[in-house]
Amino acid sequence: MTAAVQAHRASLSPTGPALAWLTYRQVWRGAALIAVTVTGLSAMVAVQYQTTFADALDSGALRALAENPAIRVLFGEPRALDDPGGFTVWRTGTPVLVLCGVWALLSATRLTRGEEESGRWDLVLGGRVRMVDLVAWCTTVLTLAALVSAAGIGTALIITGTDPSGAVIHSLCVLGSTATFVSVGVLAAQLLGSRSSATGAACAVLGASLLLRMLADGVSALAWTAWFTPFGLAARAAPYAENRIAPLLALGGLAIVPAIAVLIVAQRRDLGGAVYARPDSRAPRTRLLGSVLAFAVRRALAPTVGWAVGTAAYFVLIGALTSTIVRFLEQNPRFADLAATAGFGGLGSVTGFAAAIFALLAIPTGLYAATRIAAMAADEKARRWTPLHALPLSRYQLAGAEIAVTALGVAGLLATAALAMWVGAVSTGAPLGLGDAFAGAFNLVPVVLLAIGAATLALGWYPHAVGAIGAVPVVGGFLLDVVAVSADAPAWVHEISPFAHLAGVPDTGPNVLAGVVLSTLAGAATVLGLLGYAHRDLHD
Question: Most buried residue, 2, 17, 287, 447, by most Cβ within 10 Å?
Answer without folding.
Answer: 447
